[in-house]
Amino acid sequence: MSGTVQAKQMFHWPVRVYWEDTDAGGIVFYANYLKFFERARTEWLRSLGIGQRRLREGSGGMFVVVQTDVRYHRAARLDDALQVTACLSELRPASMTILQQTLLESEHTSTAPAELLCDGSIRIGWVDAATLKPAKIPKNILEVLEQ
Amino acid sequence: MSGTVQAKQMFHWPVRVYWEDTDAGGIVFYANYLKFFERARTEWLRSLGIGQRRLREGSGGMFVVVQTDVRYHRAARLDDALQVTACLSELRPASMTILQQTLLESEHTSTAPAELLCDGSIRIGWVDAATLKPAKIPKNILEVLEQ
Amino acid sequence: MSGTVQAKQMFHWPVRVYWEDTDAGGIVFYANYLKFFERARTEWLRSLGIGQRRLREGSGGMFVVVQTDVRYHRAARLDDALQVTACLSELRPASMTILQQTLLESEHTSTAPAELLCDGSIRIGWVDAATLKPAKIPKNILEVLEQ
Amino acid sequence: MSGTVQAKQMFHWPVRVYWEDTDAGGIVFYANYLKFFERARTEWLRSLGIGQRRLREGSGGMFVVVQTDVRYHRAARLDDALQVTACLSELRPASMTILQQTLLESEHTSTAPAELLCDGSIRIGWVDAATLKPAKIPKNILEVLEQ
What's the predicted TM-score (pTM) here? Predict the structure, then answer.
């Protein structure tokens, strides 16, 4: 993660592991971390006043994922309490890249450091919802993200 | 299951159990049998010449599930080969009910009887895709289903 | 739902609708309400001091779903804020039945009545985790549930 | 993709897009391509005589995903017929990397070239199933993969 990103810019979202998230290996199915990442991105955007359904109904456009690079370090298990982070690392006219982590909360003390389970970068682009053709991110969205 | 339904009217669709289908109990996550049921319903409709995307684009309507009653008898595991059945049991102007089963194929011999894992009835209704309001099933679909 | 169940016994759990929950019909994929129901059951059990992973590691047993009867009345959409309820309706030595609802929170005022989206009854049984054979619910769990 | 990999070494697996795979954008939810990739890897291993459940029961170990790098070029839709490929690109004592693609089959003619929807590299490592600690891939598996 870039050293220039400051802690206050890091968005955190809690996620609990349920049966639906696990697989027969007894751990969270790796594809499901992409769901956790998306929940955190969605809540980060919502915290900035950006609701994706309203956006689509209003602008006719939507964000789609164009690249995901994820490394899995340790596995989460049923009932684990996780923290999922989102941090904007690059903003371009038609896409943005968000750095994300999934951390395991310590059971024993809230002062213990959380353990990194997986991290990755997710690039999302703006498209016209009807044609799925790439397009420029609407100006009012860009302005909110630039702050 | 109704005794009046004859074997030839029963549609079968093979499904293999992958990691994505299982949970930390080491077995298929019960909600995923609804996905298996739907794959079999979709292929049954396709075998009758009914493609759901084309249907929606052409008619502006779609089928939605309005009731699911499912009993789980035994659990499937990773790598199991399943047979999923679909059998129309009731056809009404705006909805239909399909009886479905998930069966475990015997590993040892294809002549051994398959074991019943779960069964249920799924009622689906026709709605206008834009308003989600119930509507009558299009005539050409009804005619195909009545045969 | 049974009129004898009092409001204070009804457990509520908030669920937000994300992209992962929806399908190409623009609504929540019906099988995913079973996931929402399970999250609420899990949190209801956790509120009673019953953690499912610890339970399994300690007792060698686990709950599995044996029957689900669900009616879908109205559809949830992306970004909707839901309330999922859980209410124990029947407790037997080796199984229990929980009545559950998914409600749509009003966007406009917290005093408006929530709208019923779907409801159902879920029966879960206790099994030995290794053999998956039905077994009696451990006494300490039964005692907690009986209160 | 490496130019040294020859076509005959490329494993293909057909996947059909169902409602469960799509999201409210009308397209396949991007995390689900990881499921499609895994189905193809599983069937590729099965074609080599490697069954993952039997492997785990016999050896006490299993493969887990440690890294996924995926680029999404075009979106699949409901009812699309896909081809998912798997091709071993690197084999090491405790891990391997598989290059994978999802291709859209042409509706009109089987001789038309399939369209690339997404591609990526998936690295999987071998772990002890009980401790989840990395370990060397069993010799008999390595020998099969080296051929």
Answer: 0.94
Query: What is the domain range of residue C38?
Result: 3-146
The number of helix segments (H) and strand segments (E) in chain B equals 3, 5
For the cut 70, the answer to whether the pLDDT of residue D6 exceeds it is no
In degrees and rounded to multiples of 5, residue C73 shows phi and psi of -100, -50
* Integer Cα distance of A128 and A125 in angstroms: 10
By percentage, how much of chain B surpasses pLDDT 70? 92
Specify which residues D22 forms β-bridges with. D28
- Residue at D73: amino acid letter: H
Give me the active site residues of B, please.
23
**Looking at the 3D structure of chain A, how many domains does it have?**
1
Residues of D in contact with C24 (CB under 8 A): 19, 22-24, 26-27, 77-78
How far apart, in whole angstroms, are the C-alpha atoms of residue B134 and residue B125?
A: 7
D69 is catalytic: no
Q: Are B17 and B80 in contact (CB under 8 A)?
A: yes
Which residue of chain A is at minimal alpha-carbon distance from C33? A20
**pLDDT given at position A107:** 72
Q: Which chains touch D (3 or more CB pairs under 8 A)?
A: A, B, C
DSSP assigned state of A80: -
In order of A73, C11, C37, the CA distances from C83 in angstroms are: 34, 10, 10
pLDDT bracket for residue A9 (50, 70, 90)? confident
Backbone angles phi, psi at B46, to 5 degrees: -65, -40
Is the sign of the CA dihedral D135, D136, D142, D146 positive or negative? positive
Per the prediction, chain A carries an average pLDDT of 92
Residue B124: which of B40, B4, B14, B11 has the closest Cα? Answer: B40
Q: Where are the alpha helices (DSSP H) in chain A?
A: 32-47, 52-59, 139-146
Q: How far apart are the first and last CA of chain A?
A: 20
- What are the DSSP calls for B38-50, one per residue? HHHHHHHHHHTT-
Say yes or no for a CB contact (<8 Å) between D51 and B77.
no
Say if residues D82 and D117 touch (Cβ distance below 8 Å): yes
Q: With bands split at pLDDT 50, 70 and 90, how would you rate the model's confidence at B1? A: very low
CATH of the domain at C80: 3.10.129.10
